[in-house]
Each structure stands twice: as C-alpha cells, then as structure tokens.
Design brief:
It is a single chain. This protein has 354 residues and is mainly α. 71% of the residues lie in helices and 0% in strands. The longest helix has 38 residues.
Length: 354
C-alpha cells in the first residue's frame, strides 16, 4: 500500500502543477471566461454543444483528481468515525492524532488508490452526464409549451433551466454515476477501516486484493454491496446542483467576482448544502459497506440485510447523534475539496480547445 500511495503522491504533485498552469491561464484572461452553467452546455449551438459535452467528460477527470488530493484525509477521518465503536475515538481531532501516531501521514491516504482512479472516472461520468441530462431536460421537458406556463417567469432565463431543473439533472447524474461509485466506495471503505499498522495483520493487502477476495466469496453482487444505499445518497445531488445554479446566478448578479471565484464560492457552498441534507444517508451507506459479508471471507457475522435495517440500527445504537457522527471532518472537507474540484473543472473546460 505504501508504494501505491507513494505513486499516488507523485501523480498528485504532477497533476497539481498542470492544474496550476491551466487555472493561472484562465485567471489571466478574464475577458474570455464564460459563466459556469454556460460552460457545460446551456444555450449553445449544436456544434459547440458537442464540443462542450466532450470537454465536460475530460475536464471531469481533473475535477476528480483535485477532489481526492484535497479531500481524502478528511474522508478517512470521517469514515473511521462513522464506522468505529463510540469508545474508539473521542472525536475528529483524537481520530486524526491516533491515525498519525499509529500509521503516520500516509495513514490519512489509506485506501486512496481506488478513489484516485474512481474519482477521475466518477467525476468524468457525473459531470459529462450532467451536461447531457441538462440539455435533454431543457430541450424536451422544460421547453414543452404545456409545462412552461406553469413555471414562474423569474425562474426562466432565456433558454436556461430553472434551478430545480438543475436539481433533477443532478439526481439523474447521481444515479448514473452510482454504478461506478458503489464498488469504488465499497472497496475504499473496507480499506479505510483496517486499523492494523502491520500489513500482514490486515484482511486485504490493497484494492485489487480486496476486490478479488470479495468477488471470489460473493460474486459481482458482493462487489456491488451497497449499490442501493449509494443511489439513495446520491439522490441528494438535487440539492447540490440546484443550489449551485442559484448561488452561481446570485454571485454573477450581485458581485464583481471573476468566473473562477464564482466557481470556487458557489462550488464550495453548494457542496455544504449537499452534505447538510445528505449526511445521515451517507452514515447508513458506510455502515452497510463496512458490515461483514461473512461466508468465505471469514470477516465476521453479517448484521444488516437491508438499507432500512441499517438505518434503524444507527438510531437505536446512538440516537439522532448517530446519524451525524463524523460530520465535522466531512463538512470541513466539503468546501475546499469541491470548491477546488469545480475550479479545476471549469478551468480545464476553458483551457481545452474546441
């Protein structure tokens, strides 16, 4: 794992340098900047739209790398707090201190390999599909003469989607990306909750070993354990992308911020709106994904047979606070990780040739 993390660190360094050059170029030419929603497929002619769709999938890769580089240490603390016994850690600071003491700085990037690849694929698919769904909704749903009179005029700006149209596109993109996200997050969670400092004492030696063992014992269904929970969690993308549109327009109308600055603030704040609404479902998802699978894995006795059973157990064991355990590191992570991810995405969108 340490060799894998070292390779990941080198890749992060190289990508960070590339992102700096791209974003610096964007910042240096504010007159050529386009607002975020326009950059991903709204109100463009067909040729430009095809180009934007292509660019969205490519730029999403850089968004994923930026998100993981900034956010993974926070995520490790969050997952450990969500899945450990109450007596294991006194809080996020204690969890951080114990992790650094036992495993060093690299312990914060434990399980980083699958999401490094996964976030590139997930953000590429999510942002690319979001572009397509926005266009389809705008052209075939919200452009319908029967529907448009029912939408207040202030919500319709030229041919753009209203904010809840962006939210619906977010739900659709979230469902789409769940088919990649579920196995990636499943493996990541299993690796992050291996507390043994000695590799020989761990059940899984790394992501490939983890996938192999789960597949041999439980088949493809085992690898996709937690898919429904992932889709429920990502249905809250409605609030993320709906609020991102609202905030982007507000900053555009009421401030003199540059486009990258709008991307940064709207991206970070909308991500916090998302986590405020979705966090309890993420706790349930993590509990399901770290629940022993049993059988040939010999990893313990399985506790949860359904999402609802896991949700009830969290409340029964810890009360309402159980649904918010680990929220602080998650909330602290949400702003910088997603703000930088969207700045990276929009910066690469502007830098790529048509």
């Amino acid at each position: 794992m340490s060799a894998t993390i070292s390779r990941s660190d080198n890749l992060h360094t190289s990508v960070a340098a590339a992102l700096y050059l791209i974003l610096n170029s964007s910042l240096a030419n504010p007159d050529t900047q386009e607002r975020s929603n326009e950059a991903i497929g709204e109100g463009q002619p067909a040729k430009a739209l095809l180009s934007s769709n292509y660019k969205g999938f490519v730029a999403g890769i850089f968004s994923g790398i930026a998100k993981l580089t900034v956010g993974h240490p926070f995520d490790t603390i969050k997952v450990r707090l969500q899945t450990s016994e109450k007596t294991e850690f006194r809080g996020p600071v204690d969890c951080l201190v114990q992790t650094l003491r036992r495993e060093g700085f690299k312990g914060l990037y434990k399980g980083a390999s699958p999401p490094l690849v996964g976030w590139m694929a997930m953000d590429s698919l999510m942002l690319g599909s979001l572009t397509v769904y926005r266009r389809l909704l705008r052209e075939h749903v919200f452009a319908s003469p029967a529907l448009r009179p029912q939408i207040p005029g202030e919500m319709l700006v030229k041919d753009k989607l209203p904010w809840f149209g962006h939210g619906i596109a977010g739900i659709m993109a979230g469902s789409t990306v769940s088919f990649i996200a579920a196995p990636v997050e499943h493996v990541k969670a299993r690796l992050q909750t291996q507390y043994q400092a000695n590799k020989r004492d761990r059940l899984y030696r790394g992501p490939i070993d983890c996938v192999g063992k789960i597949y041999r014992a439980h088949g493809i269904g085992g690898v996709y354990h937690g898919l429904l929970a992932t889709m429920i969690f990502r249905s809250f993308f409605f609030f993320w992308w709906g609020s991102y549109d609202v905030l982007s327009r507000w900053f555009d109308r009421n401030t003199a911020l540059s486009t990258p600055s709008i991307n940064f603030w709207a991206g970070g704040l909308s991500a916090q709106v998302f986590w405020l609404t979705s966090y309890p479902s993420d706790v349930v998802k993590q509990r399901l994904m770290t629940d022993p699978l049993g059988g040939g894995l010999n990893d313990g006795q399985r506790r949860f047979r359904s999402w609802w059973q896991a949700a009830k157990t969290v409340g029964k064991e810890n009360g309402w606070r159980g649904y918010w355990r680990g929220f602080v590191p998650c909330f602290l992570r949400a702003f910088p990780a997603n703000a930088m991810a969207l700045v990276a995405f929009e910066g690469v969108m502007r830098a790529l040739p048509d």
